[in-house]
Write a structure and sequence with these properties.
Elements (H helix, E strand, L loop, with lengths): L4 E5 L6 H10 L3 E6 L18 E5 L5 H9 L3 E4 L6 H6 L1 H18 L5 E7 L21 H16 L3 E5 L1 E3 L10 H12 L1 E4 L5 E6 H13 L1 H4 L3 E4 L5 E3 H9 L5 E4 L16 H4 L9 H14 L10
Parallel strand pairs: 1-2, 1-4, 2-3, 4-5, 5-6, 6-10, 7-9, 8-12
Antiparallel strand pairs: 9-11
The protein binds nicotinamide-adenine-dinucleotide (NAD).
The site of nicotinamide-adenine-dinucleotide has 31 residues, from β2, α4, β5 and β7.
Length: about 300
């Protein structure tokens, strides 16, 4: 049977480094388009064993290249972005160009016979009092959240995407993002042996990076049912306060812990999220906080990360 071709933009990133091997193992022909902005490509080495893997070093702002690569694909998974508000704040113009104009290039190139899935974020909601569903009015507070909401709208204007608003990711991946809250807490607890935490009562919602990868595969299988829809992706059992998380880490490793209001989360994420809609499509996250933390702690005991915060 002829293999279906998947284009993964940003496939050398944190999510991509887990997703691409998964797609190859499922029998897809995979092309990654990535400008390798944060790494030298080490995390994609594992894919070259397969002659169904192709890597294109390039930029989603390059419309000619995007048209060509999208034109060759059956399915598009759009991950490439400047991710998180600290990275976007570093260079707002670049963030706008990549996150919004780059997405528009993809959106314009997609044809009706192709599928398109987009990685958005819970940061589009902003500060929410009640439990958040997909019907909750988006009110992003940061340039990152605003960019991602603009990108969602552009995609909806041009095609019928599946849009995922992910919880905050954590967990091990080939490219390990250390700016993510849990990854950062674990790294500091183990390597600097102290942690200062602000807004300890803030309720956050998390998802393991392997579950993020799984939902894209689910979307490929269920595209007809899910297309044109937006889904929160995570699980109610993964809603925790920041204090809950540090207590779980402290149960495994001793470190100096201090709570102090020395900073603020710019997205003001203090909410619980409802995940009924994605569950109704047959998708359930699998990796619990305890499992994800155990893996992370076992690995970070051994591995040191050079320049852990280089992307922000
Ligand atoms: N990790 C999370 O917590 C999380 C949560 C919600 C949503 N998301 C979304 O998932 C997607 C992937 O996030 P990630 O955690 O893997 O981030 P990441 O920063 O690790 O990966 C992004 C990738 O995009 C590439 N890239 C950046 N600009 C590019 C450009 N102009 N052209 C081509 N490639 C470019 C980078 O080199 C990088 O490999 C993003 O769209 C992000 O907004 C992530």
């Amino acid at each position: 049977m002829e293999r279906k071709r998947v284009l993964v933009t940003g496939g050398a990133g944190y999510v991509g480094s887990v997703l691409v091997p998964e797609l190859l193992s499922k029998g897809f022909e995979v092309t990654v388009l990535d400008n390798l902005s944060y790494n030298n490509g080490r995390c994609i080495l594992q894919n070259f064993y397969s002659n169904h893997f192709q890597f294109v070093k390039g930029d989603i702002r390059d419309r000619v290249l995007v048209d060509k690569l999208v034109g060759q694909a059956d399915h598009i998974i759009h991950l490439a972005a400047i991710v998180g508000y600290p990275a976007c704040r570093k260079d707002e113009r670049l963030a706008q160009e990549v996150n919004v104009i780059g997405t528009e290039n993809i959106a314009r190139a997609v044809q009706p016979h192709q599928t398109i899935q987009f990685a958005s974020t819970g940061s589009v909601y902003g500060a929410i009092g009640e439990t958040c569903t997909e019907e909750t009015v988006a009110n992003p507070l940061t340039i990152y959240g605003k960019n991602k909401l603009d990108a969602e709208n552009i995609l909806k204007e041009h095609c019928t995407p599946i849009i995922y608003r992910f919880a905050t990711a954590f967990g091990l991946a080939g490219r390990l993002r250390m700016d993510l809250m849990i990854n950062d807490f674990v790294y500091q607890a183990i390597h600097t042996k102290h942690l200062i935490v602000y807004e300890k009562h803030f309720r956050r919602t998390f998802i393991h990076v392997r579950d993020i990868a799984r939902v894209f595969v689910h979307g490929l299988e269920k595209y007809e049912e899910m297309k044109g829809q937006t889904y929160n992706v995570g699980h109610e059992t993964m809603n925790y306060t920041k204090e809950d998380i540090v207590n779980k880490i402290r149960a495994r490793v001793p470190f100096y812990l201090h709570f102090a209001e020395f900073a603020k989360d710019q997205d003001q994420r203090d909410y619980e999220v409802n995940y009924q809609k994605i569950r109704a499509t047959g998708f359930e996250t699998k990796i619990s906080m305890d499992t994800g933390l155990r893996e992370l702690m076992d690995a970070l005991e051994i591995v040191t990360i050079p320049n852990p915060y280089s992307n922000i």
